Amino acid sequence: MRIPCPFCGERDSDEFLSIGTVGPARPDEKASLDAFVDYLHFRDNPAAETREHWHHVHGCRQWLVVSRDTRSHTISAAEPARRSAP
Amino acid sequence: MTYSALALLKNALTGNRNWKPMWREPEPRAFYDTVVVGGGGHGLATAYYLAKEHGVTDVAVVEKGYLGSGNVGRNTTIIRSNYMMPDNTRFYEWSLKLWEGLEQDINYNAMVSQRGVLNLAHSDAQRDAYARRGNAMRIAGVDAELLDRSAIRELVPLLDLDTARFPVKAGLLQRRGGTVRHDAVAWGYARAADKRGVDLIQNCEVVGIRVDNGRVTGVETTRGFIGARRVALAAAGNSSRVAAMAGLRLPLESHVLQAFVSEGIKPVLDQVVTFGAGHFYVSQSDKGGLVFGGDIDGYASYAQRGSLGVVEHVMEEGLALFPAFSRLRFLRQWGGVMDMSMDGSPIIDLTPISGLFLNCGWCYGGFKATPASGWCFAWTIAKGEPHALNSGFRLDRFTSGGVIDEKGAGAQANLH
Ligand SMILES: Cc1cc2nc3c(=O)[nH]c(=O)nc-3n(C[C@H](O)[C@H](O)[C@H](O)COP(=O)(O)OP(=O)(O)OC[C@H]3O[C@@H](n4cnc5c(N)ncnc54)[C@H](O)[C@@H]3O)c2cc1C
Ligand SMILES: [Zn+2]
Questions:
Q1: The CATH number of the domain where A72 resides is what?
Q2: Which of A14, A22, B42, B402 is the most exposed place for a label (fewest CB within 10 A)?
Q3: Rounded to an integer, what distance in angstroms lies between the CA atom of residue B370 and that of residue B88?
Q4: How do residues A23-64 score in pLDDT, each as one tens digit?
Q5: Chain A residue with the nearest C-alpha to that of B396
Q6: Tens of pLDDT along B152-171?
Q7: CA B345 – CA B88 distance, rounded (Å)
Q8: Number of structural domains, chain A?
């Protein structure tokens, strides 16, 4: 799998760290216990194209949002995370 | 037909023309008491123990591919019960006990081989941690031995003990651990379940779960609707997808794990050996190939294949332990989709939907669990409540705080 880093160009996925799909956002501190449990432990885990946070940890050290299909590993886009922040 | 030395001899004398297929190929019926979704090790074992232990024989196992096409036929075949958290220790030890009697029970040669599992420690701290784990196991009645370097040298002469980059300090040995031929586990349970009346329905994908007024009424499949009083999900890596058909969201993420096999050579390694300074483990199959693996690739995947970076990493770790392996050619590699849970422990439970039961979260260690998973899941389905052995493996532990985090890694699926 190769990831087209907008800063470094196409690089081996080994240089990156994945922390999973983008969002959901951390609930407000007054939110219910269920909201926090859901945020912390539960996942959509889709078999589909997803938007994920990847860190180019052995490269430019920028956070990226990578659009990737979990069924084929096909990557359609990678953009700086700060630009697409919610 | 009962398999025995006599049956072998009789069939050999008649040119092996009279062996019967191991199970029937029935058409799905319109209704079953219980439909099990997923014909992997856990689904098949569940059906078998439902019939054997609880007399529930009006059961179908519905499998989207062929029996054993999932992780049960993709794993590296290691069984052990060297866990430290009490819920895990109890459960996996029960599984190991079932493995010890399995072949007689299901009349099938699964090549259960208690060759020993040796975990190597590479620092003083790791040796202390292994001593602690070993003591926890022994308190729970599980066998464990802490070995020093000279005992390890005698047991595994091929190890690089003298010049290794990560020196071996000690090892934790569970002699009753070992390997089991994984395909034979699927086939053996399938045959034994079929014999007790369970319908095994292959090439039949579940595409929907019908729920009326909070009660499950059956499954939509690629071969039509199958009604059921109870539906039991055992879809391993695809658990989130199947549960979503009933509107459930799970504490799971699906990740890919790879396995590797070398060319066959004469016997060089009698045990399962694991590397403690990274993530590498190896055993030698009866055909002579070295079977080895390492960590998950680290990103969500349903693709059943991994990246080359992990291949290289696993090879490097293997050579750090066994430099002699550098001369071997490696023959085959594949991947499987793991249902990684948020605390690294499984779920065997009821669900908020009446009649719908859940078995998932096996991470990369669910093969060894196959007998106990089937046994406990069958109990849970038949009695409508968990057995004491799976009373910790409940879905609400993520809310109550009762997570079973063997590794202490937190809610990050790719760290367990
Ligand atoms: C490379 C690798 C190495 C491993 N090594 C070990 C090891 O050494 N020791 C160990 O203990 N564990 C190991 N594991 C983990 C172990 O294999 C799994 O945890 C375990 O097999 C999962 O349970 P199962 O056998 O029921 O899964 P599976 O065999 O995957 O069964 C699930 C079945 O559900 C079916 N299914 C999915 N969706 C549907 C649907 N919609 N409709 C119908 N059917 C469906 C699938 O086709 C599949 O056959 C390893 C796994 C891998 C991939
Ligand atoms: Zn970069």
A1: 3.30.2270.10
A2: B402
A3: 14
A4: 888 999 999 999 999 999 999 999 999 999 999 999 999 999
A5: A37
A6: 999 999 999 989 989 999 99
A7: 8
A8: 1
